[in-house]
Amino acid sequence: MDNLQLEDLGLQDIAEKQSMFREYLDTLPQKFLGLGIRALIMVILLVISYWLIRALRKIIRKALQKSKVENGSITFIDSCVKIILYTCVILSLIGYFGIDAASVVAILGSIGLTIGLAFQGSLSNFAGGVLILICKPFVTGDYILEKNTNAEGTVTEITLFYTKIRTQDNRMISIPNSVLSNSTIIDASALLERRVDLFVPVSYEAEIKRAREVILKVLDQESVLKHDRQVFVEELANSNVVLGIQFYVQTTDYLPMKRLVLEQIKTEFDRTGITIPFEQIDVHMV
Q: Which of 71, 106, 246, 255 would staple 230 via disulfide (CB 3.0–4.6 Å)?
């Protein structure tokens, strides 16, 4: 009798499990339909959020441009706003699917701490970017020289982690912000005027006074600034007398005027008979 009861109980348990499995199969299409609808709603919300965030970023950029905020700062702020807004959208969608946002934030915090320890250099670059935008050792459009790597060029963009500069031969260099924030930066564009220093050798037979007059005449003919012009003897070398020339130009005209003045000095020296000697070595035979 006990064996029959046990068999009846086993059959009853199997029947209950089969009934539960049938109910699960019956509700499965409805669950998939509900999940599909939620996924469709999520996609729609993502698309709407994308366009809203894009429009909001445009409004913020225009407001910053009207406030005459520096372009590098605008790019940096725009990147931060983009990350913050998309993070808020993702957390909101997670809450919509019934997942506890606080738990997700705690998990993301733990993951963020792990990632932060793994990517300390990237965080240093981010902090360096913030320092550059706050202290402004340079701005977009400036011509800078970074002393550690001797990289130089025009700053085109200041991003979250890197600053991009364009060299004179039209190459793009990306320098980590942490490097720029912790090294010596020479900003050639910070001031409106820049001094040009030239050194021109003339022969010992040339008259220094005459050479000075020729150089000053060249400076008078070119578009250089009128103040603080100097022509002086810099060095008495083995084979020549080195004349130092100093004059000021507009910063934007530095390189073109330097090249032009050198060319004009050579032309005038040739016309007036002032020679630029080759390096000579006297050999005495004993």
A: 246
64 DSSP 8-state letter: H
Which DSSP category does 227 fall into? S
CATH number at residue 229: 3.30.70.100
Cβ proximity of 86 and 54 under 8 Å = no
Tokens coding 151: 């990289």
CA distances from 228 to 48, 158, 174, 208, 268 (A): 62, 36, 38, 20, 22
- Both 29 and 109 in one domain: the answer is yes
DSSP states along 103-119: HHHHHHHHHHHHHHHHT
pTM of the model: 0.56
Do 53 and 60 touch, CB atoms closer than 8 A?
no
Local confidence band at 6 (pLDDT 50, 70, 90 cut-offs): very low
CB–CB of 211/276 below 8 Å? no
